[in-house]
Amino acid sequence: MFKALLSVCLCASVSVILVACGSANKTTHLPAHHQSDGTFVNTDGEAISKSFTDFIRWRWSRTKPEAYEFDVLVPDLASIQHPQQNQITWIGHSTFLLQLDGKNILTDPHFTERASPSNYFGPKRIVPPAMNIADLPKIDAVIISHNHYDHMDEESLVDLFERQPQSPPQFFVPLGLKHEFESIGISTAIELDWWKQAQMSGLTFTALPVKHWSQRGLFDRNETLWAGWMIDSPTFRFFHVGDSGYSDDFKKIGECFPNIDLAAIPIGAYDPRWFMKDAHMDPAEAVQVFEDLNATQAVGMHWGTFILTDEEMTEPLRLLHEALVKNNLNGDDFSAMQHGQIKKLPVSIKEKGSLCVH
Ligand code: ZN
Ligand code: ZN
Question: N or C: which end of the chain has fewer CB within 10 A?
Answer without folding.
Answer: N
